[in-house]
Structure formats: C-alpha cells, structure tokens
C-alpha cells in the first residue's frame, strides 16, 4: 500500500488528508468544543509534521482564552464601536444563558440597573446616544412596562426612539399557545429525541453516519 502511495502523489495526498480528518474528528468526538483548544496544536503538529511553524506552536486553553478575550474580542469591540459612532442603530435586549463565573448585573436585573449598564457601555465606547433610533425586547414588565421599565426610560431620555416588542418572542408565545391543542405525546416525543442525542457525541456520530448511509441531507439535533 505504501509503495502505491509513493508512486501516486495524488493518492498519497488523499491518504494524508483522510488521516488528518480522522484525527480531527476523533478529538472532536472525544472532547467538548470548549476543551478542544488544548488539543488543536497537537493535531497540527502531526498533520503538518514538515512545518517548522506548526512544530513551534504552543497554544493551550488558557492562552487561547486570553487571546480571544484581550486581543480578538477587544479589536472587534473597537470595530463595532467605530461603526456605531457614525450610523443610526437600534438596540435589542434579551436574557441569555451564560455558563461563565463573571458577575453581570450583580445588583439585580432591574429596569434601572439594565438601563444604567446600557448607557455606561455606550458612554465608555464614546457612542453618541443620539444615534439610537429604536429599542426592542420581549414583553416582560422590566422591559416593556408602562411606568418603570427600560422602554419607559428610553422614552424619557430619548423621546424619538421607536419602541417595538420583539416579534420573535411574540411568535414563540403564539406557537407555545397553539401547541397546547396538540396531544401531549407529540411534545414528549420531540423532547425525548432531543434528550437522547443531547449529551452523547457517540450517538450524534452514529446519527450522522446513518444520514450518510441513507444519502439524505444532514440535520442537526
């Protein structure tokens, strides 16, 4: 087999490509994406063993996180701030799932606190508040209440701002209400399928292999 590869450069390159992909996929299945950074340099050194640059790379999880946070992240933040300084834009606020241990709005997610943090972020980046022309959020009281909310504070400080409840949240509420008319078994089946694949890289890998075998478009669970 080796002699054939040596006689056929194209076949040799294909073989090496397959080995690299196999190694990459094995690491992806073995480790979560967040921890994959610790192994990418080792993969590069094996995949590109003739490269002096690859052999000299040392990039662990801590260093990669620091680069993303303090270099790439800051650079993108500055680019976005420069754009917002010279154009009109709207603000959309929503709660997000965060697994980090950094405190955010630690004094409570009140309307006053959220609005103050928002203004603080714009002022620190020297973004003119006059450039804000719209605000959208879900319909909770802290965001869209008539008197003591983020939207009421927008109206008070920026009278010309257009206020809009997020259409995606409205669609979600409508869909959720409509689903109540369906049999409970339908929702249970959908949840069971999701939970079956959710925490198992092996099952997801088997599912992808099954889709390839059936020659169907890949779907992500």
Automatic annotation (TrEMBL):
Residues 1-28 have a biased composition (Basic and acidic residues). Residues 1-33 are annotated as: Disordered. This is Uncharacterized protein LOC112684435. It comes from Sipha flava. The gene is LOC112684435.
């Amino acid at each position: 087999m080796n002699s054939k590869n040596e006689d056929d450069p194209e076949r040799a390159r294909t073989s090496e490509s397959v080995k690299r992909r196999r190694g990459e996929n094995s690491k992806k299945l073995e480790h979560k994406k967040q921890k994959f950074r610790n192994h990418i340099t080792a993969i590069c050194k094996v995949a590109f063993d003739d490269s002096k640059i690859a052999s000299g790379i040392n990039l662990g999880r801590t260093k990669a996180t620091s680069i993303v946070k303090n270099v790439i992240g800051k650079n993108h933040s500055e680019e976005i701030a420069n754009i917002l300084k010279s154009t009109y834009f709207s603000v959309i606020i929503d709660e997000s799932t965060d697994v980090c241990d950094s405190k955010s709005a630690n004094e409570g997610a009140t309307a006053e606190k959220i609005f103050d943090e928002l203004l603080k972020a714009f002022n620190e980046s020297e973004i003119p508040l006059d450039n804000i022309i719209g605000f959208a959020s879900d319909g909770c009281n802290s965001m869209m209440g008539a008197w003591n909310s983020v939207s009421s504070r927008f109206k008070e400080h920026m009278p010309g701002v257009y206020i809009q409840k997020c259409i995606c949240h409205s669609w979600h509420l409508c869909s959720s209400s409509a689903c109540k008319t369906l049999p409970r078994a339908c929702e249970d089946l959908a949840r069971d399928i999701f939970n079956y694949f959710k925490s198992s890289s092996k099952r997801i890998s088997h599912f992808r292999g099954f889709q390839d075998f059936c020659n169907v478009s890949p779907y992500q669970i």
